[in-house]
């Protein structure tokens, strides 16, 4: 059966106006064109819809029974085919799935939850841990927002840099190098740094990271004795052993402060660590998702903009 949904719009106007001429004016068509449309509606429904009584037209019982349904269908069609630019936050019931680096979740997550809940109490967040294999893929719609240092490789994934961080060294207070070996600001000497025992942060268990590339370019190498999957795990190792871990300072600040660790600048220059926010392009025009991104952007930016008093190494 071939359906012309334009007939619904015309039927709605005819039933609302009760006049072919007025319905034609409402839809900006000619009166003869509306008369032809009424004929098509009569053939489609098997009912006269409007019958002439003197100088006016009266709806049939079938037309009266259909009027509310037809009007609702037309309004729903307009909603479907119109840009969706608003969301009722007070009534919003939605669960967003966030795959964030654990340190980012710790640094910005509390702020994000507070700001979202203040506007939309029905919204819930699921923070997923980073995994060694991508069991959740934003391209399948499994993830609403990702946040980390890596730039997505797929052209389907939108991304933006919402802040920057820098690496610092974390040691336990009793570590021999905690008081520094040169300079008045506690900066470690490069020789002392490379002679220490190190732990890397790698969810895939890699014992090498970009610091080793910089050291290798200078003809140096360090001794990495362990790899931990997250910064939180690595800092627990540091807390109990004479190890040195390089972690992003600002996003790891809650962990560093909570464990009472010693923080020192790196004794060699390293590029800043970008904080990337990423999502699938399907969510570009989703008003609820746009609202979520705005709050996530603010929470991450504020976490990265916090001052920490640690100056970079030379």
Automatic annotation (TrEMBL):
It comes from the Bacteria. The keyword Transcription regulation applies. Keywords: DNA-binding, Transcription, Transcription regulation. GO terms for molecular function: DNA binding; DNA-binding transcription factor activity. Residues 134-143 have a biased composition (Basic and acidic residues). Residues 3-60 form the HTH lysR-type domain. Residues 134-156 are annotated as: Disordered. InterPro entries: LysR-type_TF, LysR_HTH_N, LysR_subst-bd, WH-like_DNA-bd_sf, WH_DNA-bd_sf. Belongs to the LysR transcriptional regulatory family. This is LysR family transcriptional regulator. It comes from Streptomyces liliiviolaceus.
